Amino acid sequence: MATTNSLAESWTAAPVGRVAAPLREQVITALRQAILDFQLKPGQRLVERELIEQLGVSRTTIREALRELTSEGLVTVIPQRGAMVTAPNLEDAADLYEVRASLESLVVQRFVERATEGEVTSLKESVEDIAKVASETDDIREILAAKDRFYSVLIAGARSSALQQLLEGIQARVQVLRATSLSEEGRTPQVVRELRAVVTAIGERDVEKASRLCAEHVRAAASTALTSLRHVEGESA
Fold it and tell me: Which of 53, 57, 109, 197 is the most exposed place for a label (fewest CB within 10 A)?
């Protein structure tokens, strides 16, 4: 994936304003969103001087923000080279997807146990929303946003703040791989079929089947994304 070394060419951000939220939190939020929206791409360098100029904050604030994003796995600091947007390697990506499969299966289990009938209906509607969005656009960011709404309903119904924090962290770290997977021809219709099967099992309150189908869905996404990543790594070898 081609990247540019200049932040100004890839990301236009207004200086951070003096509002109620601490400057550090505003900077973290701005950078995190730019990474998740692919304005700042995997492998792109995050030069302190450019960040200071663009956001209008101190070097200390930028360094604190980069430390936080490093702890989240969105930024990697390489000795002698500085900070860059994390680009997962094949081994890390495989591990992240396996953790995601286990976590999502547990979230589905808790949803089956704890969600109301209204929340089950909302989950079904969110899958149909993915299908509708995918039929109207090829913009992967919009399709990802629709899929994130599915996860929002799922996590809310699971009623577990611990699982929510863990899953959101994993989702953020594999965001570029999720986009890669959904970009593959035929993958989005397959995603809709897989999620429809998951919500059908949830509607039947079949914990075992719903959890299994959820894990199979994540592993199917992993297969597509990891195949693409192997191809990229092979080209750069």
Answer: 53
User: If 0-12 CB within 10 Å is exposed, 13-18 middle and 19+ buried, where does residue 146 land?
Assistant: buried
Question: Scanning the structure block, which residue is given the tokens 């360098």?
Answer: 45
Range of the domain at 162: 90-236
Numbers of helices and strands, H then E, in the chain: 11, 3
- The pTM (predicted TM-score) of the whole model is 0.75
Last residue of a domain, one of 67, 85, 103: 85
| Cα gap 31→178, rounded to integer Å | 19
In terms of Cβ atoms closer than 10 Å to its own Cβ (0-12, 13-18, 19+), residue 165 is: exposed
pLDDT per residue as tens digits for the range 172-230: 888 878 887 888 888 999 999 999 999 999 999 999 999 999 999 999 999 998 988 88
* Mean pLDDT score across all residues of the chain: 89
Task: Cite the beta strand spans of the chain per DSSP E.
Answer: 45-46, 75-78, 82-85
